[in-house]
Amino acid sequence: MKKVLIVDDAAFARSIQKQIIASVGYEVTEAGNGAEALEVFKTEKPDLVTLDLLMPDMDGMDVLKSILEEDPDAKAIICSTDKQKFRQEEAKETGALGFVAKPVDPEKLLEMIKNILDDS
């Protein structure tokens, strides 16, 4: 079973994503901040990470960079309310495989996840 790590400082946002992702059979783990995300990533070795950009302790882009340093083959998508075009481009240049604007469209999120995980 494929495992997805959801990283978001908002418990409500994690809960919504968890319901969406778990509904199609993926195993879901969660982290509420950047430092916790890095620890969970190291111990759980998820197949995909969804990352919020705007978090208080560590920006999602910094988390992404750290994850990719730990595992250059890691797969991540950004789920954020920060919809600015330059942030989406920055995420892609940093190594994110996709960008989903919040509030998350369940179909778009699942399609992106399935496309990424089916290719791995």
From TrEMBL:
Record PTM 4-aspartylphosphate, positions in chain: 52
The keyword Glycosyltransferase is assigned to this record: no
GO biological process entries: phosphorelay signal transduction system
Keyword list, A-Z: Phosphoprotein, Two-component regulatory system
Ranges for domain Response regulatory: 3-117
Database matches in Pfam families: Response_reg
InterPro entries registered for this protein in UniProt: Bact_response_regulator (IPR050595), CheY-like_superfamily (IPR011006), Sig_transdc_resp-reg_receiver (IPR001789)
Keyword Amino-acid biosynthesis: no
Protein name in UniProt: Two component system response regulator
Source organism of the structure: Desulfonema magnum
